[in-house]
Amino acid sequence: MHNSIAHHMLHNAIIGPAEINHPYFQAFIKGFRLSCKNHYTLPQISRSFAGGSYEFVMHLSKTMIKDLNSLPIRYFNQTTASTNTVLQNAYRVVFGGEFVFDAWFEDFLLGLGTPCPTLLNSAKDRFSSVVKLEDISESTFRLRSFAWAISGVPRRILDYLKLEVYLVEDDDAQYGPGEEHSASLRQEYLRHGTCSFRTCLREMRIPASYLIRLLNANYSPQSEPATAYQAIHNWLLLQILEAIGDYTII
Known about the structure:
Blueprint: H1 2-14, H2 23-32, H3 42-48, H4 52-62, E1 73-77, H5 81-95, H6 101-109, H7 117-123, H8 141-151, E2 163-168, H9 183-191, E3 196-198, E4 203-207, H10 208-216, H11 228-243
Parallel strand pairs: 1-2, 2-4
Antiparallel strand pairs: 3-4
Helix pairs in contact: 3-4, 5-10, 8-11, 10-11
């Protein structure tokens, strides 16, 4: 009985109440099974693909995000004037220029590979099984991963469905585990630099205090991360990869 209910729940959520023998779906199935080149059908092609139908669909999804223009991102720097001053000073000491939120984040999105291989390897057990680290050197890996973490899908979405990235204060009302949880849990989030994702709303919130902490930290060329640049990129990369598959409004 439970299996039957689960089937109907999934069917109604994806297709609706109509049965599969409805003329609309029969016409769709007939078209879906039309022969392609060399008389193969699309189901035959997907099943014969290395890794099966799942890998076929995942491979197709990668082609939809080509560059930054594929993602409708909006940025909101919601830090106070005093926090922004501290951030600007710390950023200027390390990088010698002005901190511009959107340019800073997009520099990360366009990065290649992993800045800290050892730290990435130690964290991979926290990633969902759908994360394919063998693709990490691809030019769109970070773009796809970011889209997946913030929206729940690793592909381009409609332009009017904006992806919103916020730089926030520690007391931001929308950051972290929510008011129903203890203040100590919020402090744990902040201490570890946890970025808050709300996939239903397509939002990501980045704690400014942790970014400032990474900018002010001391680094050694003999360890990971060796520089503030590596530390920041490693932080954002791990936060995004850990969020994939964890669909939530929290």
